[in-house]
Structures are given as C-alpha cells and as structure tokens.
Amino acid sequence: MVDRLLGRPSEAKGDAKGAGKGRADGKAKGGGGPRAEPDDPKAAVWKRVQLARNLARPRTLDLLAEMADEVIELHGDRGFGDDPAMVTGFARIDGRRIVFVGQQKGADTDENIRRNFGMPHPEGYRKSMRVMEMAERFGLPIVTFVDVPGAHPGPESEERGIAEAIARSIGLMSRLRTPIVAIITGEGGSGGALAIAVGDVVLALENAVYSVISPEGCASILWRTADEAPTAALAMRMSAQDQVELGVIDRIVREPGEGAHADPRETAKRLRTAIIAELDRLAELPLDELVELRYRRYRALGPYTEVATPEVTPPASRGIADRLRDLLDPTRWSMGMPLPGSSRRDEPPAHEEV
Amino acid sequence: MPIKLPSFRARRDSYPPDLWTKCPQCGDMLFNKQLEKADRVCPTCGHHFRLSAEARLEMLLDDGTFRERDAGLQSVDPLGFVDQKPYPERVATAQAQTGLRDAAVRGIGVIDGQTVSICVMDFGFMGGSMGAVVGEKVARAAEDALAERVPLIIVSASGGARMQEGTLALMQLAKTVAVLERVRASRVPFISVMSDPTTGGVFASYAVLGDVNLAEPNALIGFAGARVAAGTIAQELPPGFQRTEFLFEHGFVDRIVHRRELRAEVAALLRFMRVPELYLREGTPASYSPIGALLASMLPLGNGGGRG
Lengths: 354, 308
Fold this sequence. Notes:
The complex is a heterodimer of chains A (354) and B (308). Chain A is of the alpha/beta class and 354 residues long. Chain A has helices at 11-23, 41-52, 60-67, 109-114, 122-137, 155-159, 162-175, 190-194, 215-222, 229-235, 240-246, 264-283, 287-299, 320-328, 340-346, and strands spanning 70-74, 86-93, 96-103, 142-148, 180-189, 201-205, 209-211, 251-253, 304-306. Helix content of chain A is 42%, strand content 15%. By secondary structure, chain B is α/β, with parallel strands linked by helices. Chain B is built from 12 helices and 11 strands. In chain B, strand 7 (152-158), helix 6 and strand 8 form a beta-alpha-beta unit. In chain B, helix 5 (132-148) runs parallel beside helix 6. Chain B is globular, with a radius of gyration of 20 Å. Chain B starts with 7 loop residues before the first helix and ends in a 10-residue tail after the last helix.
C-alpha cells in the first residue's frame, strides 16, 4: 500500500550506477553499423536469442538511469503486493515527463531470484495498469520496456489470475487516451510481453526477439524435443528484423558494437534519441485520432484470405440424412484407439502455452 | 477458389465404424447413440466430452436459426512455417478431418427467442488454435454485436495461439481484446463460455473477459500448460490445478454449468443483460462493422477510459 519508502536507496540509481561502471567497458563505444552475420540463418537467429538473453544486457532501470534526468519508482498494485519483476514510475527524459513501465530481470543470481527472472505475477501487471491509468489521468505519455521470458506460469499466478491480468492490461492499453511508446529491449516472451507492448508505435533493439511461445516450448511441442529450439526460433521468425517485415514491430534501434551488453550507455543514448523522436511525433496527434490509429493498427494485424462459399443454409430438424452423416463421421467414434478423427476430441491440448 | 470438402465415403472405407465410446473418466463403455442424445456427457460420471462447433451450435441455438457469416475466411501462411510438415499442409489435413475451414465458426442465431452474435471454437481443428482467422472471426462477431446491438456469445475450446502464425497469432489477443473494449464501452453484453480446454492466449484474451464467465465442469482452463508450468518452475502442481472448479474457487468463473443446463442458463442471463434503451435508440458509439469501419473512423470515438 506504500509507493515509496523514504530513506531507502533508490533502486534505479543504485542499480544502474553500479551496472554502468561494471559493464560499460568502453571498448565497443560508438561502434555499431553493419556487422558480419553468421552464414547459417539458424545460427544467426539463435545468436540473437542468446544476445537478447545475455545476463549483462541493460535492463529497464539501467536504461532509465542512463537516459533519464529523474526517475521516481512507484510500487504496489494496491490489492496484493509489489512485484519486483515489474518496475513502474515517473521519469523525466530531456525535460519530457513520462510514465515508465517495464519488466526487470536481475543482473546476478541473487537479484534474479528476488526479481523472479523478470517473470511478473498478476500483481505486476495490475501495478502497471494502475500506473498507466494514472498516466492517462495526468496526461503523461507512457514508455514501456519489454524484456520477459514469459509471465510467471506457476500455481500462484493462476490462482491470482495471470490470464485475466494480461487480458485486462491489453484492453487498457488499447484504449488509453495518452501516447504509448513500446520498446522490446530483450526477450518479447508471448502474452507476458504483449500485456505491456500494445502501443502507438513499437520499437525494438536490434538484437531483441519477439515470439508467441519460447523457442524451447515451440520445439518441444512441434519437434518433440527442446534441442530443436534454434530451428523453432528460425521458423517463428522471431528476430526484430523479421518482426518489422511482419508489421509487428515498427522500427529498430541499432545496438552498439557486439550488442547492448557491450555498451549500455551508448544503447541508452540511442534509445533516448528514438524515444524523444516518437514522443514528439505522437504529441502532435489529437487524442481521438491517436487512439483510433492505435486501434486500427492492431485490428488489421494478421493476414487471411476469403474464399467464396455458398451461403450455409440452417439445418432443418434432424432427418435421416443427418443421422446417417453422424453415424459415418469418424470424429464421433472412439474405442480408445488412435483413429485420426476420434482421438482428436479427447486428447490433451496440442498447444499449451502462449 | 472453393475448397473441396472431403467426402464421407473415403472415410467410411478407411476406418471401421464403431458403436461404443469409452469414457476416459469412469471407464464405462457408452453407446454412441446414447452419448449423442446426452449432448456428449457421460451418463455415469458426468464427464463432458468435447463438442464440435456444429454440435455446439445445435445444442445452444433455437432450431434452424443459425446464419453463418464469414464462412469463407481461410488461413494463409505468413511465416512460411515448416515443422514436421508445412503449415498449409496441416491446415488442409485439419480441413479434411473436420469439414471446417478453420477453428472457429461464427454467425447470428437465436437463443430462446433472443438474437445473439455467436462464435464457437472447435478443438478438432488444430487444437482449436487461434491464428488470424480465428481472431478475425471473434473480432467480427464482436463488431456485429456492436453494430446490431445484440449480445455476444463466445464458446471457447482452444489450446491457445497458433504457433505456426508466430507473433501474428499473438497479435490476435490484442485485436480481439481491443474490439471487446468497445463492446464493453457500448454496454453490449458479452457472455464467455469456456469448455475443455480453454488455455493459453485464448484464455488470456477474450475467454476471460466476459461480463459473465460460464464454464463446463472439470474443463482444463489455464494460462500456461501444465507441462510448461512444471518445466519452468520445477514445482509440484496441486491436484485439480487449472480445472474449472479451481478457477471458480479463485473467482474467475461466475458459474459452473452442466452442459444440459447451458442453453437455459445463457437465456436466463440474457434476460437480465440487455443493451440499455438509451444506447439502442441512439446507437452510440459509432459502430465498427467491417462495412461501417471507414465511416465510423471519421466520427468521434465516444468511448474509452475518459480523461478521469
């Protein structure tokens, strides 16, 4: 029930200063530009997955500490507790006041345990919803930092309604009357990512990835072994560049040198420039138009075709023809043997995660 | 180009017919005819077998009232996805097996005299997975409910988002939920019915967002599959985890409804949940039917969270 504890060292500043000194070795500073890619596309995408998961990759609070003049973190969902895997609050970037929301992984094992490896529970998403509603009320734009393997999948999460929290968060973001810039900074893991990634514009760091299911999860379902994860990563086209081509991500922010972990300061600087540009562009739009454009962006995603079919006539009362058809329909037969038609109704779900 | 639907003769030749089904819960042998008559609920233990979209519509709606819409929506292969088989081949196989074009059927029907916009899912089609077609059908069902000021009913049966469509399948969560926000703002009622299974991205989008959430007994309902959960957190899962009764106990399901009561229950709820007169008269906010979308986009929104 308390947003801030006075006298407690600010996590944002503390974390990031240490991290900045430790990680920015300066070697790759100012680097970037085109780099040699592995020839094998599978190896190339898997390299990006590993970069996105790199332990030294700058996290939400690290990036904010570098790019913002002021950061005030806010805590708690007002119903259950405070989720350290999700960070929220106010920040000032180049004089612009924003509300920030993002997952926060740890920099080491201890912090990762405390922050649950950046996997939020429902209260994390309820905290971010609370703060985003406040952003709307005070007319502040929202910037979200997405870096999550997936929402926490355990029993506590289910008990407290992780699916409901994600669905509500998506709904809230689809209608909030304030600009939203979403940035995939690391792992964009499925529903746990999308829950804070609905925006007027979606940016991504160069080595970020975005997918409907983790490559390991996809591989273990479709290839029956998690070892095929790189194959699954390639098949799902989860690299940021592929996601731009699919229209899911709008723009990419290049990473310096070997990747964001090599130079967090330069990464933050580039992100800052991109965020400022987007905020200024979005600020020009009237709110009605902004929300309508955001709605239409998501309404239009996902291609399909339409084939001409005769209008289906409603079935009359069940006549002999219907009964005959039922009798001949193997989907209704079953004796425990794996008939292609019959087993399908009562086997466990083929797709288990999103 | 119209798809050639499978003939039943081919299947008669390949599989011997069978008159009995074994109940996976109590092990009783059930005479198929009897099982059909009982809406595919085991008369011994009450196990709810899965229903095809067709059987579900027949069970819920007044006879002969269903008018299908968007029957021709068909999946494409945006990623060029190949696992053991190419995705288009998987779709074709599922079409041949089910006679459906994709995992959802939607249209307008009547429940006990009340017109509704309804969308039902079929687990038999690729695990009821949600790709762009399912998302589009759900969105259009919601848009028709908005435009025609009739209640929205969605019956879910799905393992979640369709991996073969990648993040575009994930985006269907945003697409469907965004439309539902408008349904909600316009005071058009939405009843979500969850059947076995309702998991992953379907549960984490429209299925959980009903004004009233109904669920069939002992259905698997959850966010992450049990295998995923066990693999990620290395912790013993409690018995009954992710079953209807677990969800009910934790407050995410309004009522657990036996299949034979479902139609009456939905009808009874709809008699309370009416679009208010004022909204019926003024027809506000602007409708978002596919046809009216262009026109609607020029009008002020009239919904959304307001500015507090």
